[in-house]
Amino acid sequence: MRGELSADVIVIGAGAAGLAAAGQISRAGRSVLLLEARDRVGGRIRTRHEPGIAVPIELGAEFIHGSAPLTRALLDSAACPVVHAADSHWSVHAGRLVRRDALFPQVIAAIGRTSVLQRRDMSFADFLSRYVRLPGEARQFALRMAEGFDAVDTAQASARALVAEWTGDILGEAPQSRPAHGYDCLLGALLAPQQAGALQLKTSATVRGVRWFRDQVRVAGDFAGIPFRARARQAIVTLPLGVLQQSDPAAGAVHFSPPLTAKADALRLLASGAILKMVLRFRSAFWEEIAQGRYRGAGFFHAPGAAIPTFWTAGARAPLLIAWVGGPPAARLARRAPRARLTLALRSLQALFGRAVDVPAEVRGCYEHDWQLDPHARGAYSYVRVGGDGARADLARPLEDTLFFAGEATDTHNESGTVAGALDSGRRAAAEVLGGA
Q: Residue 339 domain-assigned?
């Protein structure tokens, strides 16, 4: 890129939020410069299509949680069907693999019998131990659910925020689905309707600094190692929370001048959670055949106490199992070598199925992406720390009608950590920009 680029609005980050924001603004006739540090769009959506496998391999976002009308509408516009994700749960209990679908409803019912969170917030671990009456298995399930689904440290995570999410639209009886052809279909749907000539998309364009004053934004960075500059009247920042919290330029930090002082409390009261996701490929979907087909159509397998406690199927009799662990255990495992992580995953699977199958003999491959070490992510998705009521709204609030903020961490409708939350935040930030025009 030569010279100084210019547009009405600069959007930093071409994940779901940035693409949604850029599309809405460009369709309104305003010029947009969309800058993405990666050599691809999509952010924490990363889909692989492998020969011989009928379903996509999702290294990042995978599920559609709840109704998610915008997500579904975009997929429909791309002629990408949505398929139901099996939600049956099998867990090792008393040495046997048995159906345990009732644990989450049991947890929600017990949570509903206390009103302490209406008076004050506390850590989720403290809330469970002091105020929620649950048998041991259900209590451990709740802790694993918080770590696994929400990627939280239960000693730091806001119980109030977690309970609000768990009793909202994306869990419980809400539908759980997947894009049949992969989440990358969504990216095409977001790019397709862009106003011709109104959008400049630059990938491999890493933003290093943002200098801003009211009605004036100057961006500096490098494009494939070559310095560039850009200017606009306004900018939408969709950087992931983990990147916004960085201070070391070598770790991907973006320098804002003046600094984002008004966001300091929000950034302190939000955390970027860790996950470890390994997509294991096998010779066949062996779990469909063992035990006289007992597990045919299963959704999730749980091995409490194992190094990797949760696995789920990818549907369509695909020879894939997704190994998953979240929270502090994921952060610790991420420091292990890939071969060591695979060994632990296979041992955990063997603990599930016992002598019914030789799991290591069945494995044919493993796919993963380390979102914690990814300099453009620095974590999987966000959660609220104790006392963080309003932190997401504070992070989302515009500064001087000049800097606007989007991304799943700014969602205020209990859809943080999801593609739906990111999309909605992008649309909201675009409406704020256009409303102030």
A: no
